[in-house]
Amino acid sequence: MSGVKINNVVKRFGDFTALHELNLEIQEGEFLSLLGPSGCGKTTTLRLIAGFIQPTQGSIILGDQDVTQVAPQHREIGMVFQDYALFPHMTIADNIGFGLRERGYPKEQIRARVGDLLDLIRLAEVGERYPAEVSGGQQQRIAVARAVAYPPKVLLMDEPLGALDLKLRETMQVELRRIQQELKITTVYVTHDQTEAMNMSDRIVVMNTGRIEQIGSAEGIYDDPRTRFVADFVGQINLLDAEVTGADGDFLIAETLGSQVRVPKGEGECSGKVSIAVRPEHLQLVDTSSSDNALNVISGKLSGRTFAGNLTRLFVDVGAESPIVVEARPQDAPSEIGVSINIGWKVENSRVLTE
Ligand code: ATP
Fold first, then answer.
1. Model pTM?
2. Phi/psi class of residue 69: alpha, beta or left (left: φ > 0; alpha: ψ in -120 to 50)?
3. If you measure from the C-alpha of residue 290 to the centroid of ligand 1, how many angstroms do you get, rounded to a whole number?
4. Which of 228, 244, 267 is the last residue of a domain?
5. Residues in the chain where the model's pLDDT stays below 50
6. 351 Cβ below 6 A of ligand 1
7. Which numbered atom of ligand 1 lies nearest the CA of 192?
8. Does 301 lie in the same domain as 155?
């Protein structure tokens, strides 16, 4: 097992630059997800690590070896794809043992290793069946077992749960994370599903148009997005156009939608036009008579509502391009469309974004 370093990697396809000077270090044993919308460069990054494509510039290091010029079959990497790619004519045990047989391992050793892996993926009873005789979730666990049978230095997974329905995907997220932790294998995981990345990863790399926007833990990225793109891509968020008008100790004073609000100072200097970011769950319905300095308040009219079982989403027209989304307890939510409401949030629950 090894860590991975991507040093200053540029990848061009003809005139098109898919990756711009990418620098990324993946720690040994870490589960790292590449998260971003379609076309942002996730799969290209994975294929560069695997060696299926060559960087236009820069280098890839596995452990302490520069593998930039090393062919994929000599990189000792395990890969799992969305379509499982199991061999249909081989039993599940033979699928898992395939890499070991290719490398000439003795039969007894292969049988023991396959048995251990079937136990690890909790499918000891299906070894003699064929891939078509097990479910999609089971096939994906088998694909993982096959990828790690000859212990690779790094496991790469490209949208491995994309073909499964939502419920099964959630179960499989827990399952894949457990397998990764038991094997303590360095894993790079590609997904465009932010919930999946948040559920599974030690760290998440948010990518956009061939560049890294932010790297951090799920909590770090959700609570402290550094750019509008990250704020908007990871979870739901309200972004309010604002203008900084002054400062007060650790806070900035800004004008938004005709109200004065306070926001914690971010890193670096900040003036002029900004966005103020507030998550729907941090907004509350407030009564105007409360004069709490720790609370920012803006006014609007209820323009819509949706019921989601444990909460009601309120859409509040505040005179901006899009309504503000508030998550309220169903029993607190007003139902009359058009009614005036005041919404507030604790100063510390908002962030100022400049990029
Ligand atoms: P998705 O989630 O849709 O798979 P992605 O983030 O994995 O997206 P990549 O497959 O890495 O995106 O592609 C990044 C960009 O590079 C895209 O604009 C894609 O069209 C382009 N690209 C990828 N491979 C090639 C290629 N062989 N030739 C030309 N352009 C390519």
1. 0.90
2. alpha
3. 52
4. 228
5. none
6. no
7. 2
8. no
